[in-house]
Write a structure and sequence with these properties.
Distance between the termini: 36 Å
Number of domains: 2
Helix content: under 10%
CATH class of the largest domain: Mainly Beta
Strand content: 35-45%
Largest sheet: 5 strands, antiparallel
CATH superfamily of the largest domain: Nucleoplasmin core domain
Number of strands: 14
């Protein structure tokens, strides 16, 4: 266990020391006002010191037992009470939802164009976790490149691309990279087609994974 955590962060937990058969338990209190509790480690075998404060309470690094966000199958760590409180108050606080926005109807060919499909308003503050696009009829030769802008500024360091003969960015050789994921309430997103294929694709839907 790690030391160095301030006492106000120190959880109070019961101490259960198991001793291999034939070995006596060792609980040793030194002359200094700091308790020294020893426990048996099975790998590698040997006695190890368990850090405690002067009251005999274990000193535990919270990161050893707490983790946000919780992971499926994780039984060794728990979420913090602050995370749990937020989740109880708002079940969507730590979740994400997908939103799709059709920018071009299925029969409309791509062209280099700004603000395709008009404005997309974000009603409350959020973070964009992932994005992508798909078309109704695949373009041929070259890439389609699509940008998403927040109040006129791109959210990407690497924009969305759709490869030749493909209908979705999911199969693109290069994945988009979001460099500005945080969106303020009442922001306006717009969608640009920056590059088209030799035979342009038709139709366009943008999808966003958003954490509100």
């Amino acid at each position: 266990m790690s030391s160095g955590s301030p006492d106000w962060l120190t959880p109070i937990v019961p101490v259960i020391v198991t001793v291999p058969e034939g070995l006596p338990p060792v609980v040793n209190v030194s002359d200094t006002p700091v308790a020294q509790i020893w426990g048996w480690c099975s790998d590698p075998e040997g006695w190890v010191k368990i850090l405690a404060n002067s009251e005999g309470k274990l000193i535990i690094d919270p990161s050893e037992i707490l983790q946000n966000d919780p992971q499926d199958g994780q039984i060794a760590k728990a979420p913090t009470s602050n995370w749990a409180y937020d989740h109880k108050s708002n079940l969507n606080a730590h979740g994400s939802k997908y939103s799709e926005y059709r920018c071009l109807d299925k029969d409309t060919s791509h062209s280099v164009l700004e603000s395709v499909g008009g404005d997309f308003r974000i009603p409350i503050s959020c973070s964009i976790l992932s994005v992508g696009a798909y078309v109704d009829i695949a373009g041929v030769t070259g890439l389609s490149t699509i940008d998403i802008l927040n109040s006129g500024v791109s959210i990407f360091s690497t924009k969305i691309t759709i490869d030749s003969n493909e209908k979705t960015s999911k199969t693109a050789e290069t994945s988009p990279v979001i460099s500005a994921p945080n969106i303020d309430a009442d922001s306006i997103l717009t969608f640009n087609i920056d590059v088209i294929q030799t035979t342009p694709a038709k139709g366009l839907v943008i999808w966003l994974e958003i954490q509100w």
